Amino acid sequence: MTHLTAGALGGRLTEYRFGKKQLFWFCVGAAWLPDIDNLFGLLGPEFYLLHHRGITHSFIGGLMLALLFAGVFRLFSKTFPFVSGLLVAYACIVLHIFLDLITSYGTLIFSPLTRERFTLNSVFIIDPIFTGAMMLLLLSTRVWRNRAKQIAIAGLGWIILYPMLSFGVNRAVTRYYSGRLDNEGIPYQRLELSTEPFSPFLWKLVLEHEGHYSLAGVNVFDLDRELRFEFHSKPNPELTGALVQQISMLKTFLWFARYPVMEYEHVPGGGRLLFNDLRFFSTVGFLQRSIRNNNSAPFSLVIDLDTDNTPLSWRYRRPRGTVVIHYIE
User: Are 196 and 213 in contact (CB under 8 A)?
Assistant: First the structure.
């Protein structure tokens, strides 16, 4: 909904600028277009992790998509302005990339030149304040048609301003806790603030240590309160070093995870390894309870082992809760 609404706001503006109604739906389509890579999920969870928010979400791949999209429209409409359409499509695609970049998931914006993920860690993946305001502004362009252009500009400004303000809060709170923990003599290797529902007001503080992570909830209106940390072990290098040679899905998962953690559980006939990424954990009550009730977060990987730590199978939990099971021969 966020991408489609952003495209619709862009469409309202461009249809006034170029005087062509067809550009409205052109913008809506272009703003969604990078998410065509969701089809990669049909090729399996590992392929999806490797390539979702990859080439179609990069500046180079986005330009190729814009050329293709404008070319298709020109084929069906000889009066379609190809050059203007190309520029508008690329602007909508770059806007899509920006809207993904502000979440904690991460985006391969420079693919295929590098496989590094980038994130501004500013807005939770579902932000009712952010998206709700965009939708209200879009609706307003139909109610006050004589002000539609100005409202569309305001809506596009909101799309940039809100994440940047949230990013500023992230940086300020990060500096505050860095100074506070240093003064309190609490050691850590890395300190990051990651999004929660209701960011920029609520965040999760992640401290990286040599063998584990510490996770605590943060409220910007109560920064001085005592931090209550949960502790999560990092993957065991000796165990995972052997397993990644046998299970490519584990290698991909560890590449994908920003804060990878692992639990070991003894079960009849062997053991079980549960891998998670703290990006998809929460310190907010109702989400925290949901994760505990399901015994795992989205993007979690479970590996079943026999008594000799030989892998028997792995199970992967997709974002929408479905589970993929793979048996190892």
Answer: no
